[in-house]
Structures are given as structure tokens and as C-alpha cells.
Amino acid sequence: MKIDVLPVGWIETNCYLVTCGETREAILIDPGWPDDSIAHRIAERQAQVKLIVNTHAHFDHIGGNAAFVESTGAPLAIHELEVPLLESGGAASVFDLHIDPSPPPDRLLEPGEVLKIGSLNLKVLFVPGHTPGHIALYEPDHKVVFVGDALFRDGVGRTDLPGGSTPTLLASIRNELLTLPDDVTVYSGHGSETTIGDERLNNPWL
Ligand SMILES: [Zn+2]
Q: In whole angstroms, what is the distance from residue 124 CA to residue 168 CA?
């Protein structure tokens, strides 16, 4: 498995290209901007993108949906509760910004379902609070979890945007993320990676 971290857009959102080392099938997580670095890395890896997933529908995580759905032909997947935010441009207008409108999702993610990408098995975890339908993707064999804006190194997601809830977010982190093993690497929507163990120990919000 290869994990490429590609920070893109106004606020350096981490887009992740996760490629199966055996089949070169790949999943593209949160293409936040139609940035050339993403297209270049897909080509470099000779990756076949099979699925595009948004952890949630804020503008900085969906701004490249239109471009990469078109260029890869891959279906777009998101949780049902994020669809209104996706359709309304991901709250970009709150910040006076504009993004390319996202195409509608091809697939709605169910908590607990497992996305099979080559030999990778990514389990959908439901972690609302930053937004109502926020999900994370956990790969137990490789001990990695992609958490979007739910959890950061020494931080948690903001909850002051429409649909946010601090108690809901903290419950999601406690019940869905802190129950994972300590040595699971956490890949967040912004900033550097961390581990479940480090956050359990050091995160002042938890
Ligand atoms: Zn967000």
C-alpha cells in the first residue's frame, strides 16, 4: 500500500491517494482542489482510481470532485447526511469563496461497510460532529485511519460551522476512533499525521 499526502487548495487540505501495491487500484480521499499535483501523482503511480470519497462535504474537501470524477471516471461516494452540504457548495459562500460545483454522489456510504480497493479493505466509520454525516476510513491490516476533520494532532475539528456539534464530535472520537489500537496511524484533513496512542495520551481536547 502506498499513501500519498497531497496538500491542496486555500487551506492546504490533505488529499490522500491510497494505492494497492499489488493491483495499483486506488482510492482518492478528499480531492479538495483540482490541483495538478493530484493528477501527476495518479499518473506517476499508474494508479487506477476506483473510488473517490469525501470524508465530509466542506468546500475544501470537495473542490476537486468535478475534475477528478471526470478525469478518472471513478464513482463519487459520501454519507447521505452530507448531500445537502455537497449540493450547496460545501459552505464556500460563508467564506466568500467559489468552487467548481460537485457532481452528485454515485454511491452513499453506510457506517460499517467495507470498501474493497485491490487488497485493501477500508471500513467506513461514522464520526459526525464536525458535520452531520462525517465519516472516517479505517484499514485494519495496514493500521491506518483517514479521519478528515474529525481529529487532528493535538486538536479536534471545529464545530462552529452549520451542522456542527461539540458533544457529538467528542462522542464520535471516543466511540469510533479511540477504540482503535494505539499503533494505528491517523491521517487528518489538515496538518501532519499522528497515532491513536499519541492522541489518547496528549490531545488536550480528549
Ligand atoms: Zn471540514
A: 18
CATH superfamily placement of domain 2-202: Ribonuclease Z/Hydroxyacylglutathione hydrolase-like (3.60.15.10)
pLDDT band at 42 (very low <50, low <70, confident <90, very high): very high
Say how far apart CA 39 and CA 36 lie, in whole Å.
5
Query: 143-159 as b/e, with b when 16 or more CB fall inside 10 Å?
Result: ebbbbbbbbbbebbbeb
Rounded CA separation 141/30 (Å): 22
Whether 182 and 195 have beta carbons less than 8 Å apart is answered as yes
What's the gap in Å between 23 CA and the centre of ligand 1? 31
Q: What is the pLDDT of residues 66-106, one digit of tens each?
A: 999 999 999 999 999 999 999 999 988 888 888 999 999 99
Per domain, the residue ranges of the chain are: 2-202
Ligand 1 centre to CA of 98 (Å) is 16
Tell me how far the alpha carbon of residue 67 lies from the centroid of ligand 1, in angstroms. Answer: 20
